[in-house]
Amino acid sequence: MRIALPLAFAACLAACDDAAPPPSAGHDTDLPPEVLADAEQKADQVDCRQYDDGQVDGASLLALVNKQDALRGSYAPADLLPLGAELRMPDRPVVLLRAGARAAFEALTSAALVEAGVDLRARSAYRSFREQCLTFDFKVRENGLEHADRYSARPGRSQHQLGTTVDITAEIWDWELEPEMAETAEAGWLATNAGRFGFALSYPAGQEDLTGYAFEPWHFRYIGVEAAAELAASDLILEEYLRACAAGDAGFACPEEPQPAVPVNQEFIGGACATDADCASLGPDALCLVEDHPGGYCTVPCTRGCPDRAGNNQVTFCHGEREGEAWCRSKCDFSRFPEAGCREGYTCLDGERPDGSARADVCRPEGQLPDAVTEG
Ligand SMILES: [Zn+2]
């Protein structure tokens, strides 16, 4: 890790009585599930498209994402998988990482238990563009735009949308994310050893001018073992390394590790199912709606937030129905839901059934269209 002084501070040594505080240094944090669920209730009033101005494709493990370089709003990883209960903190029933990052996180936490005696868990990992939008909007409504910009990433500008970033905590830190945790031996082990498993610390101490974020000793991004080794051998922080890679700097190999192939998993919100067991990867409270849903419809109650799931609709959100009971839905009918839509390679079934009853309104992989509905 680099020891050199950040630019502004270095300049400060020369002449510096009126130094300004670092610009918008904040934390990139999530909302607790119950607060997010509440935000979902107001989601109709939020225009997330106003933030969708990014160009970055997040598929690369080395994609440059910061407060200036934003991901496309439509970007969602195609290989998200849920973390098992032994990998996530209590009260976080659904935590998703890309397949390669999940395997690496498993290896990291196993080693931490053996070598440092600490049971590391994920507090927050993948956050969809929409979830980040609701989070940001919530903070704007609570504290105003300036405060939200200072303490939260705008939609598209969070590394959590990549599905390779994880906020790591443990019971010894009361499951919190606080800079003070860095003073513990366990966090020291994490900082020293994360690179062995392909993880890098995104926001080191004293680098606000470069990263835009205050020190986050909990926020790690998976870049692959080889890239992490190249980063460790340099005197750069992750942000500088990713900028060098994005610029095609010949001094760096920027190795891109192939990611494990993951078959299209149908256990997503709106995914096909026959019984509740088919939806188990969404969490213990997941269930399969069969009535009015040809081919089944995996979902979860909105009370703990609605997770996006790759391979299906563009967004997932809360939609009340059935005598006030609200389930997470993934709709694709733009005419009714402004943020709806399907990902590439999927088709929106928004037609009516042959008998003229309920609309299907769900994305299915092209070529896998159930017979019971006509394509709209
Ligand atoms: Zn984070």
Any overview of this molecule?
With 376 residues, this protein is an alpha+beta fold. It folds into 2 domains: 22-246, 2-Layer Sandwich (Muramoyl-pentapeptide Carboxypeptidase, domain 2); 276-365, no CATH class. The protein has 9 helices and 12 strands. It has helices at residues 7-14, 33-41, 99-115, 129-143, 145-151, 185-193, 208-211, 225-233, 238-246; strands spanning 80-82, 96-98, 121-124, 165-169, 199-201, 219-222, 287-289, 297-299, 317-320, 326-329, 346-349, 362-365. The strands form 5 sheets. The chain has a 4-stranded antiparallel beta sheet with strand order 3-4-6-5. A two-stranded antiparallel sheet has the order 1-2. Strands 7-8 form a two-stranded antiparallel ribbon. Helix 4 crosses helix 5. The protein is globular, with a radius of gyration of 21 Å. Residues 1-25, 263-267, 353-359 and 370-376 have low confidence and may be disordered. Zinc ion binds next to strand 4.
Summarize the entry for a quick read.
The protein is of the alpha+beta class. The chain is 23% helix and 12% strand.
Strand content: 5-15%
What would the CATH topology of the largest domain be?
A: Muramoyl-pentapeptide Carboxypeptidase, domain 2
**Distinct ligands:** zinc ion
Radius of gyration: 21 Å
Number of strands: 12
Main sheet record:
4 strands, antiparallel
* CATH class type of the largest domain: Alpha Beta
Whole-number total of structural domains: 2
What structural category do the secondary elements indicate?
alpha+beta
Mean of residue pLDDT? Answer: 78
Task: Supply the CATH architecture of the largest domain.
Answer: 2-Layer Sandwich
What distance separates the N and C termini? 54 Å
